[in-house]
Known about the structure:
The structure holds three protein chains of three kinds.
Chain A: H1 2-21, H2 25-50, H3 53-82
Helix pairs in contact in A: 1-2, 2-3
Chain B: H1 2-21, H2 30-55, H3 60-87
Chain C: H1 5-22, H2 27-47, H3 51-76, E1 78-84, H4 98-112, E2 117-123, H5 126-134, E3 140-144, E4 161-165, H6 168-177, E5 183-187, H7 201-210
Parallel strand pairs in C: 1-2, 1-3, 4-5
Antiparallel strand pairs in C: 3-4
Helix pairs in contact in C: 1-2, 2-3
Amino acid sequence: MNGILLAMILALLIPIYEAWQDEDIWQKMLAFASIATKTSIMILVVSVLRDDWMIGLVGVLILSVGNAALMLLAHIIRRLNEA
Amino acid sequence: MIDIFSYGLMVLGVIFWFWGTLPLLGHRSVLFKLHSLSVADTLGSMSIVVGLLLKIPSEWPLLVLALICLAIWNTVLGYVLAYCSSTGGEDA
Amino acid sequence: MLENLDVVAIAALLPLTACMLVTQVDPYHALIIRGILGAVAALVYALFGAADVALTEALVGTMLSITLYAIAVRSSMSLRLGTLATAAPNLDAAVPSALGQQLFPALRQAIKKHHLRLEVLPYASPQALQFALENKEIHAVCVPAEQLATTQGTDDVAAPYLLNVRIPRLYETLAAALPPELVAVSFSRALRLTSAAPPPPDSQLQNALEG
């Protein structure tokens, strides 16, 4: 189980590096979307690992709400490039 | 038996994650990266959640909710990101 | 220590993303990195068992603060440029004028390096434009050169337009970046303009209403 978590951290490092080195704002948004999904899945894994129902609930909430923030931000950035 | 199956699903999910995320590093267009990211990443995440569901079946409402959220939100997000990046980014 | 390797590795992600955040130059890129930092912070808080803190970080720290800051950055990082409504009838170049064709793209290019946005506000009469500049409603004024009343020593320049900037730092930036044959950049806090043609009565009425 710990090995799976470590592999997940490695997979999480790829979009973090991508967000750091790429200058295009949409590539950064893609990396952000990837990181938002990956971190909430990792929260779910940690909750099952520890058998903690409350952390799992928080993970599901973050999974559903973090994407909504991403969509709002995408629309604001699009309006910004138009004006 | 079920334990091995759930571990197998989780390892498969992590492999899907790497498969979907590694194209992010190349110099391809946003839409190409979005395609691989949305397909492979969502499949990988769903397979990990199914693996967790097999491991702890007592928390099934929570994990089924996570599955549904993942499927719907990531699809919608893929459409929204593609729409926003292709209409707004050209005339900057 | 080795069995806590995953905890240490996840906790190390937090200072990593924080260092990425403080090295960003563009404010919008910094906002996206702030979102990544919020997601990683929620993961770290959940890992240490603080479910309520993680939920607050995701809802308020990531979603609400990013949205509010995006709107705040969008409305504050802009150069408000006042023009005469007769000189630039439409921003979208319905009438092909030199203002819309050459000057605005050059100006956008010049301020884009400093992550600013151009916002053009047309005014009905020179008096309204003067009033807006003196009351700090706009940052700069762009008028045709023949509408300048006083002899400020700019009449030896053959530029068709005059760009008067109210802010010293902005003046230095624009004077270095804009081509001198296109526009003459000047710096003063108030401007004296003459109306080339007598303004129509409705704009006079609008002036009186604006006070």
